[in-house]
Amino acid sequence: MPLLSSPFGRSRDRADHGRRVYNRWSDHQRIYGALVRLAFLERDRAARERALSVLDLASGERVLDIGCGAGVNFDALGAQVGSGGLVVGLDYSEGMVRAARERTPGTPAPTAVCRGDATTLPFADGSFDAAYATLSLSAMATAETAVEEVSRVLRPGGRLAVVDARPFQAGLWRALNPLVTPISMLATNWYPEVDILGTIRSTFDESRVWTTNAGTLYVAVGWKEDEVRRDRLR
Ligand SMILES: C[S@@+](CC[C@H](N)C(=O)[O-])C[C@H]1O[C@@H](n2cnc3c(N)ncnc32)[C@H](O)[C@@H]1O
């Protein structure tokens, strides 16, 4: 049983509510950044680095940043794929898209930002080598569909790395959940009941998960099998 269910139905209403929440946050990015740092005691930084390292981007690759927000990942992703690669940020909030576009000049790789819904990605099958989603899937009412969509737009051998948050899992920390969970749901349109890890496991051919911060913060990676390579290894 989920600890708390969102007051909204699992529908377009919830996506629009999220859009409004993040349009507001896009006008207060400093406060938002400070709240995130406080909530994770800055451990999200190490989690992002770990996810990037497992994503193992190569020069010239095309990477999709799902729920890119104000584009906080663009420099790190661009540094890995370089000037011959491509970073595409996608976000549902117009305010965040505007903020992310302001960040694109001067990024280390060609970077494009589009407004769109991660549950119906506007890209052809196999368009990307890799995808990265930081603190964004848990802000989607139907993140399971988003994970399946990401898998669709990844090429064989492509991979998805996720940094995200869930309620406290460890020992006495769990006593904080009834307080922290509703506040986070209100402030960040958080859907703790969505089974992101289970969906990564069932959608990708191989996956791994690392957790930190009393189990709240995790890094998950899913790999799509490369059939050509698999057949060669047989
Ligand atoms: C908590 S912010 C994370 C932003 C950024 N990735 C970061 O690490 O700071 C969640 C972002 O997901 C976006 N988002 C929520 N639902 C979405 C959807 N269905 N499709 C695309 N983006 C979505 C929000 O607009 C918001 O910018």
Report on the architecture of this protein.
The chain has 234 residues and is an alpha/beta fold. It has a single domain (12-233), classed as 3-Layer(aba) Sandwich (Rossmann fold), CATH 3.40.50.150. It is built from nine helices and seven strands; from the N terminus they run αααβαβαββαβααββα. Strands 3-2-1-4-5-7-6 form a seven-stranded mixed beta sheet, with helices on both faces. Strand 4, helix 6 (143-153) and strand 5 (154-165) form a beta-alpha-beta unit. Helix 1 packs across helix 5 and helix 6 runs parallel beside helix 8. The longest helix is centred in the N-terminal third of the chain and has 15 residues, at 12-26. The chain is globular and about 45 Å long. Residues 1-8 have low confidence and may be disordered. The structure holds S-adenosylmethionine. S-adenosylmethionine (SAM) binds at residues 15, 18, 22, 67-69, 72, 90-93, 96, 117-119, 134-136, 139-140, 188.
How far apart the termini lie comes to 43 Å
CATH architecture: 3-Layer(aba) Sandwich
Hetero groups: S-adenosylmethionine
Q: In terms of structural class, how would the helical and strand content be classed?
A: alpha/beta
Overall geometry comes to globular
Element-by-element helix/strand order: HHHEHEHEEHEHHEEH
DSSP, total strands: 7
Which CATH first-tier class would you pick?
Alpha Beta
Strand content: 15-25%
Could you say how many structural domains there are in total?
1
Radius of gyration, in Å, reads 17 Å
Rounded mean pLDDT score: 90
CATH homologous superfamily caption: Vaccinia Virus protein VP39
**Multimer state:** single chain
CATH topology: Rossmann fold
The helix content is 40-55%
